């Protein structure tokens, strides 16, 4: 599973309903299986949808409407529908590469190392959130913490810590998973000094195409600023067929 | 015996063993010439570094909105820079306001992080020498809104030359994704790490349009009038802008200021080491001179020469040699330094190298003032004094009878 693309993957390819797990809660196998399951759910999944992204900062608030296509976690294309000024501006993820098409100038920019930590479309997600891929089993140590409650809902707490020398900026990530249906509810990202720096909350589970899915995702920096980015799915369907060639730079610019 | 007599006698004594005397004088001459030249070169390098920093990067003093320097942000701005500029003008301090933002610069398939600097072209010229540092193309023109001037390494990494098209992409102050195409007017010479790698200079108006920032400025760069020292200048500016952060370049670049300070200290250390060696050579020569002549000195004392006069005789022998060394040393160093001041050493092979992010010039010129000469000469005389004390005392305290029987 790719941890940091976890956030955006959830936007782009929402979770499927979770099957029950075989391993007993509390064992490392259980925690691993719980997280692994999410990864497996994506495999080969294709989607098309429209989402709304609200970005609130101290200085401005902005609302955008985005159309999105995805195929597995390798490919995705997100295009701005609103506001008018930015209409057509789009981001393409082709495996490890990220491209941005700018409607205003008609140019395509490959996002390079220097901009990876930068904001994605002015939101609290970084470009890196879209492309960075880490594998749980290879890159993280997984630990299950004592169960807890989130807003009165019983949750499993799973803590994952990067193994030494992995190119991961987080000190650790704590994931809260609802016990009743094993849906992840919240990820808290800690920096290298183990201080919480940002938090991703999943909510508003709805039945879409027979699946129970979170339709709202909120990313908040934990700096006391009150800023956030909130993504809400307006439309979403999985009955699409997309060829990998759909996710090409040529197609990025073609509309 | 008169003092003049001692001087004459000492001088003659020197040439009883001309080879030894010449070696001693030669050693002192070489040391002095080298150290004076070295002092001139070091001073030249320091001045050039300091001037590069001050002229190209920091100015003498900078004004920021409180908090900007610790955490630069598009939103932390000096609200009314014009009022401050007016007051600085009245006080006789040349100053200019700049706008800064980070973003992405792209051309073709390449992109790189960029520092977007918006400037008032006319005002900036009075404060910064950047406008003269265009290696290829021309500097900004207020009439050319779409023209930008970029750093050397940025141009290289994006494969850009004057006339090329550059895309700038950033988050504007209203949250929109600012992206515009501009034309490269000029590429700068090596100016220091930050500007070289990502500097994009543009007209303030163009900058404001791209970033959607109608007013304010991030930074005011101030120069001090001639004859005002840095601390006084900072204090004066702080009085003019009491509600802002006011920093001198030494405060802005403490590491560089420290390096310059340490270099000055290490010069003194090098002088000390070289002169310690010179002192030992002189000590050895004078000791030999004294021991060779013990019986003669004994006779001088026996015929009534006072210990003070004997002391003076030996000391003056040393001083004569020093005087010759200083004269010859300066005579050699003067044309050498003249050349180094006016022509310099070509170090363009090092061009682009930087100390603490500050660029070297491609020519290394020496710079001289009184201390360039006074320092090494004073220290030489000091070293000679120490080296002469022992043999001179030894000679002064000889007992005539013992000395005359010495073999």
Question: Layout of SSEs?
Answer:
The complex is a heterodimer of chains A (255) and B (407).
Chain A: H1 3-12, H2 28-42, E1 46-56, E2 61-71, E3 75-82, E4 90-94, E5 97-102, E6 107-110, H3 113-116, H4 127-131, H5 136-139, E7 140-150, E8 153-162, E9 172-178, E10 184-190, E11 196-208, E12 211-221, E13 228-237, H6 249-253
Antiparallel strand pairs in A: 1-2, 1-13, 2-3, 3-4, 4-5, 5-6, 7-8, 8-9, 9-10, 10-11, 11-12, 12-13
Chain B: H1 3-14, H2 18-58, E1 61-64, H3 81-91, E2 95-107, E3 110-119, H4 121-124, E4 134-137, E5 147-150, H5 152-158, E6 165-171, E7 177-188, H6 193-198, E8 199-203, H7 204-211, E9 219-222, H8 230-240, E10 245-248, H9 249-252, H10 254-292, H11 294-302, H12 307-342, E11 345-346, E12 354-355, E13 358-359, E14 363-364, H13 370-396, H14 400-404
Helix pairs in contact in B: 1-12, 2-10, 2-12, 2-13, 10-13, 12-13
Description:
The complex is a heterodimer of chains A (255) and B (407). By secondary structure, chain A is an alpha+beta fold. Chain A is built from six helices and 13 strands. Chain A has a 13-stranded antiparallel sheet with strand order 6-5-4-3-2-1-13-12-11-10-9-8-7. In chain A, β2 and β3 form a beta hairpin. With 407 residues, chain B is an alpha+beta fold. Chain B folds into two domains: 201 residues, no CATH class; 194 residues, no CATH class. Chain B has 14 helices and 14 strands. Chains A and B meet through β6 of A and β3, β6 and β7 of B.
In short:
Chain A is of the alpha+beta class. Helices cover 17% and strands 45% of the residues of chain A.
């Amino acid at each position: 599973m790719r941890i940091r693309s976890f956030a955006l993957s959830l936007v782009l390819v929402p979770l499927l309903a979770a099957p029950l797990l075989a391993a007993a809660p509390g064992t490392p196998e259980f925690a691993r299986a719980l997280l692994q399951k999410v990864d497996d759910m994506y495999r080969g999944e294709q989607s098309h949808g429209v989402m709304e992204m609200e970005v609130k900062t101290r200085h401005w608030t902005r609302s955008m409407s985005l159309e999105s296509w995805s195929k597995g976690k390798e490919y995705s294309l997100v295009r701005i529908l609103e506001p008018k000024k930015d209409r057509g501006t789009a981001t393409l993820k082709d495996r490890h590469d990220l491209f941005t098409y700018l409607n205003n100038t008609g140019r395509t920019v490959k996002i390079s190392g220097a901009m990876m930590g930068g904001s994605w479309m002015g939101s609290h997600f970084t470009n890196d959130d879209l492309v960075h891929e880490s594998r749980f089993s290879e890159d993280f140590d997984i630990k299950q913490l004592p169960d807890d409650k989130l807003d009165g809902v019983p949750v499993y707490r799973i803590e994952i810590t990067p193994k030494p020398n992995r190119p991961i900026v987080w000190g650790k990530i704590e994931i809260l998973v609802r016990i009743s249906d094993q849906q992840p509810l919240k990820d808290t990202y800690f920096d290298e000094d183990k201080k919480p720096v940002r938090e991703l909350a999943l909510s508003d589970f709805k039945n879409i195409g027979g699946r129970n899915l979170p339709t709202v995702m909120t990313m908040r920096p934990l700096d006391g600023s009150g800023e956030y980015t909130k993504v809400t799915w307006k439309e979403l369907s999985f009955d699409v067929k997309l060829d990998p060639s759909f996710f090409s730079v040529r197609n990025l610019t073609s509309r | 015996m008169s003092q003049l007599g001692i001087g004459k006698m000492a001088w003659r004594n020197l040439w009883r063993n001309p080879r030894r005397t010449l070696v001693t004088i030669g050693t002192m001459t070489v040391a002095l010439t080298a150290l004076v030249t070295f002092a001139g070169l070091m001073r030249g390098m320091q001045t050039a570094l300091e001037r590069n920093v001050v002229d190209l990067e920091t100015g003498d003093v900078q004004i920021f909105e409180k908090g900007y320097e610790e955490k630069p942000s598009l939103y932390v701005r000096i609200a009314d820079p014009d009022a401050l500029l007016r007051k600085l003008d009245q006080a006789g301090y040349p100053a200019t306001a700049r706008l800064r933002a980070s973003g992405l610069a792209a051309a073709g398939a390449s992109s790189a992080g960029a520092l977007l600097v918006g400037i008032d072209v006319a005002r900036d010229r009075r404060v910064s020498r950047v406008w003269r540092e265009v290696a290829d193309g021309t500097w900004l023109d207020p009439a050319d809104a779409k023209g930008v001037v970029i750093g050397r390494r940025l141009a290289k990494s994006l494969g850009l030359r004057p006339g090329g098209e550059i895309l700038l992409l950033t988050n504007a102050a209203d949250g929109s994704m600012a992206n515009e195409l501009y034309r490269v007017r000029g590429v700068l010479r090596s100016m220091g790490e930050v500007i070289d790698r990502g500097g994009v200079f543009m007209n303030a108006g163009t900058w404001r349009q791209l970033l959607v920032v109608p007013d304010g400025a991030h930074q005011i760069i101030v120069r001090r009038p001639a004859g005002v020292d840095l601390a006084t200048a900072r204090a004066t500016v702080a009085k003019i802008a009491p509600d802002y952060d006011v920093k001198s370049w030494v405060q802005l670049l403490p590491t560089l200021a420290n390096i310059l300070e340490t270099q000055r200290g290490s010069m003194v250390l090098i002088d000390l080491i070289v002169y310690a060696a010179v002192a030992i050579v002189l000590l050895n020569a004078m000791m030999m001179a004294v021991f060779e002549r013990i019986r003669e000195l004994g006779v001088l004392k026996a015929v009534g020469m006072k210990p003070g006069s004997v002391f003076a005789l030996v000391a003056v022998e040393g001083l004569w040699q020093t005087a010759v060394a200083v004269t010859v040393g300066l005579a050699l160093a003067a044309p050498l330094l003249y050349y180094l001041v006016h022509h310099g050493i070509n170090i363009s092979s090092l061009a682009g190298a930087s100390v603490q992010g500050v660029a070297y010039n491609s020519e290394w010129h020496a710079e001289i003032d009184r201390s360039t000469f006074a320092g090494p000469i004073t220290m030489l005389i000091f070293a000679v004094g120490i080296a002469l004390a022992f043999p001179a005392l030894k000679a002064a305290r000889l007992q005539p009878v013992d000395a005359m029987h010495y073999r």
